[in-house]
Specification:
mainly beta; about 140 residues; four-stranded antiparallel β-sheet; five-stranded mixed β-sheet; 9 strands
Length: about 140
């Protein structure tokens, strides 16, 4: 299983066919003070799985880490790999994780680490910047 896309965004619109319109992709948040609380964001993860994985349950662990490796937050998702849309091709599917009221204690680099099982598949960087100009 591979993570083909992973982004932080302000929101998304999902469709019945499994596609998504991703709204407001970002990798930096500018704040006037720290600690800061991000009231709402969505972590979007697109995956592809080999046909041999279809029907099996997989576990995704997501950890939000500070630059020193300290954990800010974490969650786990368990899902079954869906059938592919076309026979004989990989299974492509999306997962979206709404996140609310995440507190970042100081400016600097953070990252979402995405693991399938115990294997790191993708890192999504997120930088917290202090707006010292007051704009």
């Amino acid at each position: 299983m591979e993570v083909t896309l992973a982004v932080a965004a302000r929101g998304l619109n999902g469709h019945e066919d499994g596609t998504m319109d991703i709204l407001g992709v970002f990798d930096e948040i500018v704040t006037s003070e720290v600690p800061c609380i991000v009231g709402r964001m969505v972590l979007i993860v697109s995956l592809s799985a080999d046909i041999s994985e279809v029907g099996f349950e997989r576990s995704m662990n997501v950890r939000l880490l500070a630059a020193d490796g300290g954990e800010i937050g974490a969650f786990q998702d368990t899902f079954e790999v869906p059938d592919p849309r076309r026979s004989g091709s990989p299974s492509f599917f999306n997962r979206a994780y709404p996140l609310a009221n995440i507190q970042f204690p100081e400016p600097g680099p953070y990252a979402f680490s995405i693991l399938i099982g115990n294997d790191l598949k993708r890192t999504v960087p997120l930088y917290i910047s202090l707006d010292e100009g007051g704009t």
